[in-house]
Design a protein that fits this description.
This protein is an alpha+beta fold and 84 residues long. The chain has one domain: Arc Repressor Mutant, subunit A (Orthogonal Bundle). It is 23% helix and 11% strand. The chain contains 3 helices and 2 strands. Strands 1-2 form a two-stranded antiparallel sheet. β1 and β2 form a beta hairpin. The two termini are 29 Å apart. The relative contact order is 0.17. GO terms for molecular function: actin filament binding; ATP binding; microfilament motor activity.
Length: 84
């Protein structure tokens, strides 16, 4: 959803974009697909302080994330580091 404002921060319009998600792709990845779920990235690459404050464990301990992450284990970091 987008909300459009004018120079005085008054709402002047908006737009809603609809996405069609395939249920099978949202729930589980195929063997040759990567898991791009943000929860996976938090478990793997968040700083130790953030993982501790969110009480996060290894992705292998969560059912959703350990279904087939064979490709994600080889994932190269291509996104900015979190900030403390």
């Amino acid at each position: 959803m987008e909300v459009h404002f004018d120079e005085e921060y008054t709402i002047v319009g908006g737009n809603i974009t609809y996405y069609l998600f395939e249920k099978t792709r949202v729930c589980v990845q195929s063997t040759d697909e990567k898991n791009f779920h943000i929860f996976y990235y938090l478990c793997v690459d968040a700083s130790a302080r953030i993982r501790k404050s969110l009480q996060l464990n290894s992705p292998d301990t969560y059912h959703y994330l350990n279904q087939d992450c064979s490709q994600t284990k080889q994932l190269t970091k291509s996104y900015p580091q979190d900030t403390d």
